[in-house]
């Protein structure tokens, strides 16, 4: 399992079989790993538990093939059962990402152990109060957004009134300042957004369709990383 202190969420890719335009998930994972992405999440609302385990196995094998098992964080969305079953089968999975209505963070930490990575989707409604008051002792990063409305996850950013709350770059800069843990931003992020997003101070960006539905996923992944690195402020 991964050392929590080495987490790098700067270039974070989320993928599942429903987001690849019919292309093999493994091929697109290979593309982003070769491009240099630092975090990989397996997410599917349609795949069975056994299918999710096999996707996780394939992703772990690809990371091992490229010698990136200790550099790229491999997570599963939502499914604590899949993470536990995969580990039982000897698959190297670093942790889980959960939302507000999923299995509680403290339960994930109890079952996965102190060295596992746990990410949490930040609540859209009353976001800034939420990140200031939430106990972050059990989590490693917040996932926040959406930057834009997205068809990949239509319910992303839904407020209590059923309307989608998108986030401005000003909001995101404030979020980066206030959050006690790193923040990764997604939700409709495209290459055009990366320069300004990189300058907000967040820990990284996450994308789905910007890569998985691109005509050339690897080329697009490379462009995203290059844009991020070119615009990320240097630490003093």
UniProtKB/TrEMBL annotation:
InterPro entries linked: Aldolase_TIM, ThiamineP_synth_sf, ThiamineP_synth_TenI, TMP_synthase
Provenance organism: Faecalicatena contorta
Protein name: Thiamine-phosphate synthase
GO biological process: thiamine biosynthetic process; thiamine diphosphate biosynthetic process
Cofactor: Mg(2+)
MF GO annotations: magnesium ion binding; thiamine-phosphate diphosphorylase activity
Cofactor, how bound (note): Binds 1 Mg(2+) ion per subunit.
Lineage, highest ranks first: Bacteria, Bacillati, Bacillota, Clostridia, Lachnospirales
Positions annotated to bind Mg(2+): 78, 102
Residues at which 4-amino-2-methyl-5-(diphosphooxymethyl)pyrimidine binds: 41-45, 77, 121, 153
CDD domains recorded: TMP_TenI
Underlying gene: thiE
């Amino acid at each position: 399992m991964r050392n929590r202190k080495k987490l790098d969420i700067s270039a974070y890719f989320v993928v599942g079989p429903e987001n690849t335009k019919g292309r093999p998930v493994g091929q697109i994972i290979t593309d982003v790993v070769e491009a240099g992405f630092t975090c990989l999440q397996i997410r599917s609302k349609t795949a069975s538990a056994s299918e999710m385990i096999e996707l996780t196995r394939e992703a772990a094998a690809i990371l091992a093939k490229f010698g990136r098992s200790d550099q790229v964080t491999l997570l599963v969305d939502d499914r604590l059962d899949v993470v536990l079953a995969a580990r039982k089968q000897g698959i190297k999975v670093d942790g889980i990402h959960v939302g507000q209505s999923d299995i509680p963070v403290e339960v994930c930490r109890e079952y996965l152990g102190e060295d596992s990575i746990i990410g949490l989707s930040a609540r859209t409604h009353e976001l800034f109060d939420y990140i200031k008051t939430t106990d972050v002792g059990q989590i490693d990063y917040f996932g926040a957004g959406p930057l834009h409305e997205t068809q990949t996850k239509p319910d992303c950013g839904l407020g209590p009134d059923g309307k989608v709350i998108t986030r401005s770059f000003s909001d995101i800069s404030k979020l980066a300042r206030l959050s006690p843990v790193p923040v990764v931003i997604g939700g409709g992020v495209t290459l055009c957004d990366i320069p300004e997003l990189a300058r907000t101070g967040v820990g990284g960006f996450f994308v789905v369709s910007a890569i998985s539905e691109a005509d050339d996923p690897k080329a697009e992944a490379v462009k995203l990383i290059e844009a991020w690195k070119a615009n990320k402020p240097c630490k003093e």
